[in-house]
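User: For my dataset I need records formatted as: sequence, then structure tokens, nothing else. Please produce one.
Assistant:
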Amino acid sequence: MDGTGSNIDHWQERVDMAAAFRWTARLGMHEAVANHFSLAINDDGTRFLMNPNQMHFARIRASDMIVVDANDPASMKGPNAPDPTAWGLHGGIHRHVPHARCAMHCHSIFATVLASLADSRLPPIDQNCCTFFNRYVIDDGYGGLAFEDEGERCARLFSDPAKKVMIMGNHGVLIIGDTVADTFNRLFYFERSCETYIRALQTGQKLRILPDDVAEKTAQELEGYPEQDARHLAELKAILDDEGSTYDS
């Protein structure tokens, strides 16, 4: 780090966010200059950090993050205004879902393929898929770009705190969590789970679906697995550091 963050609030959170953006791009889970991640920075969650409007994930730095107030429409004015769909979707989430401290929305390939199927459920066919057993919601009411009305509608679907993944029918995926590490880890494993399922479907063979009790037991065991999310993100930052990345500037 070059000291850029010495006079910027929430510096460590910004660094974590920037690392998540960089790695999402490296995995090809981004989409051009669209998609958005956000992180609440006040107690009720209504003020949040977000990526600048239409900046590519692969070059976002900690100091680039903008601060948005979900309760202040003036956030949409001026040179640092967020993308209107980011305001609609993430504003709605941070305004109405206080347990969503972090929200990551992208159009990653395999999650979007799942979201495009008439049956968008993710069956527990392997250990990763078990992670999400009874822990996602399916939005089957896509109504166009995520402006304010669409964002408010999506926020209402996160009424159950146990469900932290929204399979956005005909759209993509929205992941919420407590921290950047928690949310990015969930995003990573959800995409891996979707890939396993879609590739299994492509074989045309019958699926080996685990019983509900085993899937739930596995999900609970994974939820209690110590520090995997924090260590995952720490390792990604270490790789970026070794490469001389500018993410933390």
